[in-house]
Every structure is written in C-alpha cells, then in structure tokens.
Amino acid sequence: MSDHIVGREHELAVIRQALDDTVAGAGGCHVILGAAGIGKTRLLRAAGDYAFEREIAVAAREAFRHDHTAPLVTLAGALRACSPPADEFAWLSNPDERDQGNYAKIDRLRDCLERYSSRRPLLIVIDDAHWMDELSALAVRELVPALASSPVRWLLAARTRQPDDADTPGWQTMEWLAQRSTSIPLGVLDDDATALLCEEMIGAKVDNTVVALAAGCGGNPLRIEKLLSALLSTDQIMVADRIATVVGEDLPSSFVATVREIMGSLSGDAQWLLRATSVLDRPFGIEAAARLMGREPGGLFAPIDEVTGSGMLVEDQEGLTFQHDLVHQAVRSTLSTPVAQHLHQEAANLAREQGRPTAEIAGHLLRSGPAGTGAAVAMLRDTAAEVAVTAPAAAADLMLQALHAVGPHDPARPAMVAEAVGLLASAARVSMAQELGEEALRAGLNPATRTTLQLGLAEASKHAGQNARAAEYADDGLSEPSVPPATQAQLQAVRAHATFYLDDYATADAAGAEAHRIGRVHEPGAAVFGLTARSLVAQAEGRLDDALTHATTATALADESGGAALHRHPRIWLANALTSLDRFDEAERALRRGRREAEGLGTGWARPLLHYYSAALLTMRGRLDEAVAEADAGVTIAEQLTALQLTVPLLGTLARLAVLRGDLEQARGCLDRMSSLIATGITAPPEDVEWAQASLLIADGSADEAFGLIEGVYDELPDRPTLIVLEPRSAARLVGLALHARDRARATAVADAATRLAERNPRSHAMAGAAAHAIGVLRRDLRKLCEAVAAFRKANRPLALASALEDAAILGRDREDQATVRGWYDEALRLVTAAGAHGARQQLEAGLGAWRGVTPGPLPIADAPCLPLLSQAERSVALLVAKGMTNSVAARRLHLSPHTVDSHLRKIFMKLDIHSRVELASVVARECPGNPEVT
Question: Where is the HTH luxR-type domain positioned along the sequence (predicted)?
Fold first, then answer.
C-alpha cells in the first residue's frame, strides 16, 4: 500500500471489500468527497495498489480544468491507459472512430466494457472528477447503473463543492452519483492520527511542540505534510533521544507561507522552475518548462531533480505536475502581475504551437493582459460554436467566460448573450438562461437578436417543463417585427407543444399548423415538430384518425427532408397514434425503428419518450412486467439527462402500473417523487398526474378522496376525452367512482362522453368497448357489459376485457346462468394473472372470490419450466445473460433497449436475492438444466 495512509483504516476497508465483491462478479460505484488536501488522491492510489494485488485491471486518469471542451477525453483517457492494456478500447485512440454521435460512443463504450469485464474485473478511477468533460460525465451517469450487474467498479473522487464553484457537468454527476452510490466522505484527521502522521513523516516520536503546531493545520494531511517538510528543510525540527521537537521562533503561519518556506530552501533555478510552470493547468514536459523559463532543456535536469525531491512536483503518465492543486495555487500566488501576464502570453503561444484546445489558449490570453482579451473572446466564441453540438454545457461555460471578459457595455455583448442563452438551454441550465436572457431583454436588443434570444428562452423553459413560460417567450418572439421564417416556424412549434401541456388545444393546434405551413419550406424540423403537436391535440380531443394522419405526415416529411427533421423522431408519435387505434403490431414496429434511429442519430431526449410510449403499448397488451421495465428505464434515462419534463409522466406511469400490480408502497414512492418535481413548476397532463394519484387512493380504499381529486377531470371529459383514449377501461371506473359518490350527473356525463368518442371513431373497437362498458355500469345493463366484452376482445386489450368481465360477473351472479357467470370470472382471473396485474387480481378475488368459492390467498407460482419467481420477460433475459451474453447483446436478441434489459436484470437480482451475473449463471445451471432457449 502507499505510504502515509494514516487515519483512513475504515475507508480503506470499505474500498477493499468493494474490490473483493468486484472479483466475485459484482459491480458498483463509490464516490470519495472531501476538502482539498484531505487525502483523496492517496486513497485512490491505495485502491489501485490493492486492485493489482487482486488481479483487477485498472483504468485511471485525473481530470483537468480544460477537459471540458474535449468530448469524452476524461473517460477515454482512463480506458486508453488501462493496465493491462485492452484491445476493446483501442478505437478511442482513432480520430475516425471517435467521430461518431455522442450516444453512439456511449453505447459502444458500454458494449466494450461489458465484453472486457466478462473476462477480467475492472476498476475505473477518476480523480478530480468534478472537472470531467461533459460527455464523460453523461457517460458515467449512464454506464454506472448500466454496468451494475458486471464486475466493473467505479471509484471517483472530487473535492467538496463550494458555493461559488461553477455548476459543471462533473459536479452535477458527482452529486447525482452520491445520492445513488456509496459515498466515502473524507474528514479531517483526529489528534491520534495527526500525531501518527507526524511520526511517520519525521521518522521519530514527536513531543507536544510538534503535535501542537500540526494541530493548527486543522487535521488536513497535505497541510501537515507541507508544514513538516518546511520545518525539516529549515532545520527547525530537532530529534534528540528519538524524540522530535520544534525549535526556533519564525514558524510558518499559513499554508502559503509553508509552501514559500519550502521554496526558500531550494536553489534559484528550482524556484524559477516552480514559479514559471505554475501558470500551466496541466502536466508539462521539460521542453515546455524550458520555454517558459527562457532556458535550454539540458540545463533543467538538476532543478527538476531538486523540485521532485522536495515533493513540490511529481511525475505522472503525462509529465510533471504539482503535487496538489493547493500547492499549485500557493506557488502561483508568488507571481507579480507583470510576470504572470508575460508567462501567460508565452504559455498561450506554446499551447497554440502544441495544438492545444483553443479554450486553453484563450484562457492564457485572458490572463495575459488587455492586449490578449479581444483575441481570447473571439477564440472562446469560435470554440463554443465548435463544441456546442457535442458539449453544450462546456460551450455555455466558454460563452459565459467570454461575456465576463467583454464587460457590460461592449457592443458585441447582446449577440453573445443570445448565443449563451441558447447554449444554457441546451445544457438544461434553465434558471441561468432565464436570468441572463431577461437581463439582456431589459437592456434592449435589435429585433433579430431579440427573437433569437426569445427562441432560446422558450426552448429552455420547454425542456424544463415550464410550459407557461415557454409559451410566453414564444409569443413574445412571434410578436417581434420581421421575424425570419425559419425562426417563426421554430417558435410556433415550441408554442404548439407548450400550449398543449397547458390544455389550450385550440392554440396548440393552430400553432402546430403554422409551424407546418412555414416550416415545410423554411425549416422542416419545425414543421415535423408542429405536426407531432397536432397529433397529440387530435388524440387528446378523441380524433384518432386525425392523430394518425398528422403523425404519418410528420414521419414522411422527416424521412424526405432528413437532417434536423429526423432528429424530431416523429415515429414516436406515430406509434402513439397507432396504439390508440388498436394497431399494436404496427405501433411496435414503429417504436422499434424509432429506437434504432435514435441510437443511430445519438438523440438523447428521444430515449425516455420512446420508453414512455413503449410502456403504454405494453400496458395495453397486458404485459405489465415489461411495461414496468420500460417505464423504469425511461425514468433512469430522463434523470440522467435532467429531462425533468419527461420524468413526471414516466413516474405517473410507474405509479399506475404499481397499483395494477398490487405494489402500493412503490406507487406512493413514485407519486412522492413526481409531486416534488411538480412543485418546481413542471406541468403535466392530469392523465399522468391526477389519475395516477386517484388510482392509488381507490386502491387504498379512499374512493371519496379520489373522486374529489379528479372532479376537474370529470368536468373536462366532454371536450377532453384523453383519459378514455389512453385507458379505455377508465370510462367505467369513472362512472363507478361517481356513482359511489352519489353524483349520477357526472357518471352520466362520462357515459355520454364515451359514447360520443365511440361514434367519432367507428373503426376503434376499444372506444366502442369503453362506451358500452360505461353505459353498462351506469344502467346496470348486462347486455351492454356483454357488448363491452365482445369489443374489448376484438381490440385485444386484456386488462380492459378483464375489467368488463368482472363487472358482468358482479351484475350477473344473481340473475344469469351460473356456469356462464363463473366462466366470466375465471376468464377475468386468468387474464389479470397472466398480465401480472396482481392488484387487479386481489380486487377480483375480494369482490367475487367468496361467491365463486375461492378463498383469496397468496399469488400462484407461475407455471414455468424454471425460475418460477420470474416473469416471462425476466426469464428470457436471465437465460441469455446466464449463457454469457452481455446486456447489449441480449437486448439486440430480444429487440429491447439495453436500458430495459438493465431494468429486468435489477428485478431478477432482487427476486433471486443475488448480486452478480456469476451467481445468476449458477442459479440457472441449477434450476434450468440445459438452459432452454428463449421463446
């Protein structure tokens, strides 16, 4: 193990146990957080040493400040340095291979990591992870949970975040991981550990003079070590009779003073070496040091030996670097302003010659004095434009840096603000975008810049689910004179989607039509987006054929136009329209193709939406376990992307599914998370929010409270039959709930709305079934209930069919042929059991079980050839993974997304009480002789 790991026995034990678990096949992530100089790096090195002892491959890298403008540089650098080397990661060194879409890179990385870890466990170490580049940060957020079932252990360290630290993707990811992984907080050393560290540093026992002086360092190991180094270098520590004591009166009073004390003990050349290279923010070679010092490289050998011997500089894979950022800052503070400006100018020239990122060059120019500011701002803006597609957060940071440099009255500032707002919107930093944008709007802008700014603000607000503000910004932008047609189309498309979620269907449809009219000539992507909004409006109003027409037109236009239009992914809404018309096989094909397109184009926002509509389709088909896996995967991705607008409906879907499956505690958890997001200003349709909440209340026996909660849904149903469209069996449930509340008027209104919906959509068996079911419950009309059964059977909607059969059995048990009624009950029971709707099954048994002569009891064990605790979908995944397939390969085999396979695998591990793929293979070998093929 590394030297001087003092006072960290518990933390080391946690890491060693995690690495032992990794050897056994389990994955996971540990986050180390602590103040600067507290010992994070040393702990990482100790972890690497132990990993080598356990024959775990190690991929390690430190993140640097300038990583943020180089997509994937942090994670790719770690994997390229993997020890032992791995062929799987060789493509990361090939510029042509790296030039693919961001999400395609992440998917490929995932596949490579799965394949490599199937042969050998892997530890991935990232120090100073708060400086990770944006794509690496996103990859870590996705890969940590995705590889939890593989022997890949993540160990990431970052210093404790301070209030004035920038909100970088690295910080966001570390905070996200800290909530979902095992955190290892590093505190200060206690008195005993401080004394022990002093003894190890000095090589002798210490008296109270040493301990008292070290105590002034506040238990920070780096500060203690530097203090002792300074005292040793100035002969202020005396050892007599094997006891060390401090002598002299001129003792360092601060860390900076301590570092200067150490520097003062070095030669003049060594001191100049430290000071000259302190302007660099990355490891450097001997040639760079010589250039800054104005010396020949051959004359630096002795100074380099001297500074490395003092511990001020250390060697790593990329050259020489300061032992710690605190030491770096302390040395840099010794430079006078003229000297610092000269060195930064030379560093900028050197960086330019070495082909360093332009952001690094600009950073030096900004610190080189007034002469470099103009050039630096131009470089920052150019670089921001270059990296905006792959790293919008990094581009936004560059623009903010440029804005800070130009000052409030620079004539170029308004245009720069507009650019920055758009980038901040893309990076989901909505509050900052709004604050900066509002400031610029108040200051006055020319019309073109103002309109561009309002489009950026509208998109930022829409992304965050703040639809009211999005609509306001879009309206303001459209009110400007001489708005370019392409911008008009984009504003109208955003306005259409925003006002749809504000329940203003007339405005949404009109805006969508305008976006299509203008955009098909000037901006096809906006035209496609406008048409998808019109499809949503038509579906919400119950015009199902119109919904399909708009989605079909959008899809054809995107295929014809390509480019940005394809990135709108209209097949997602096409699948939604097909689902509402009971055309499930076509909808499934559309979603499958849409998923392939999203993966190929690397479009992040489309992924959670694909999972949302996949979950809806699977629910209609009565495949609840698969629907849960899709919705769960969607929530995971939406949270990773901070796509909060999409997280709310996905959580509502999970809550409704949990109620159907009888897991009310999980439903409560989903609704709590959803409510906390809504409290931030996110809006979502009542079908996703109030109906989910009411479903839980009904299952909890609080029908009156549920009715009170959704009175608004009842009142809007004549003009907004969306709930019946999305869930046909809800019509009868709404009628029953209103009758329970003795509100026959509202019950009648529901039946009338369902009837009109069926008349408007004569080709929809599901809508006919919804109307007949609602009327049957309202009038206690068994003939109508039998009509509903026949319609739902034609629509192939198992849960709706089971619900109609249940109501028919309840009504007919005292007045119909008992064999027929028992048949209805038995069929309903088979349907809900096969669907995994255990909550619906319990309700059915509680209502009719005694009459049928069945005593409610535990759920039956599935009649499966093996692994009876698993659903059919979970069993398929388990059998493939047990054969050695990676999640990615299993996903392709089963025509699922890898995220859905991840979700299935988490549930498999929980149900079987196992923690690794190795254990799963053992269980399958024991319980499934021959590992039957997946059907």
Answer: 863-928
Residue 251: inside a domain = yes
Length in residues, the chain = 935
Query: How many other CB atoms are found less than 10 A from the CB of residue 863?
Result: 6
- In the block, tokens 């639809």 appear at 467
**Quick one: DSSP state of residue 367?**
T
Co-location of 417 and 562 in the same domain:
yes
Question: Which residues share a beta bridge with 314?
Answer: 321
Return the H-helix or E-strand segment holding 544.
helix 544-561
Q: What is the mean pLDDT of residues 804-812?
A: 94
Q: How far apart are CA 123 and CA 56, in angstroms?
A: 7
Q: At what angle do helices 898-912 and 134-146 cross, to 10 degrees?
A: 40
Residue 888: partners with Cβ closer than 8 Å, 6 or more residues away: 107, 110, 111, 114, 898
Q: Cα dist. 364→351, 519, 523 in Å? A: 9, 43, 40
In a domain, 284, yes or no: no
Into how many domains does the chain fold? 5
Q: Determine if residue 552 is left, alpha or beta; phi over 0 gives left, psi from -120 to 50 gives alpha, anything else beta.
A: alpha
**Burial tier of 552 (Cβ tally within 10 Å: 0-12, 13-18, 19+):** middle
Structure tokens at 240: 């007599």
Domain housing 808: 702-852
**Which one has a higher pLDDT value, 403 or 14?**
14
Tokens of 64: 């640097």
Average pLDDT over residues 351-359: 82
For residues 404 and 468, membership in a common domain is answered with yes
Q: Which amino acid is at 803?
A: S
Q: Please answer whether residues 546 and 505 qualify as being in contact, where contact means their C-beta atoms are separated by less than 8 angstroms.
A: no
**Do 198 and 177 fall into the same domain?**
no
> ∠ CA(512), CA(513), CA(518), 5° rounding?
100
Partners of 34 in the β-ladder: 159, 186
What confidence tens digit (pLDDT) does each residue in 212-241 have? 888 888 898 988 988 898 888 888 899 988
Instruction: Give the separation between CA 470 and CA 605, rounded to whole angstroms.
Output: 17
Report whether pLDDT(863) > 70.
Answer: no
Diameter of the chain by CA atoms? 107
CATH number of the structural domain spanning residue 740: 1.25.40
Instruction: Return the ∠ at Cα 645 (arms to 639 and 649), rounded to 5°.
Output: 90
Beta partners for 322? 313
Q: Do 116 and 142 have their domain in common?
A: yes
Whether the pLDDT of residue 790 is over 80: the answer is yes
Q: Which residue has the tokens 């955003």?
A: 494
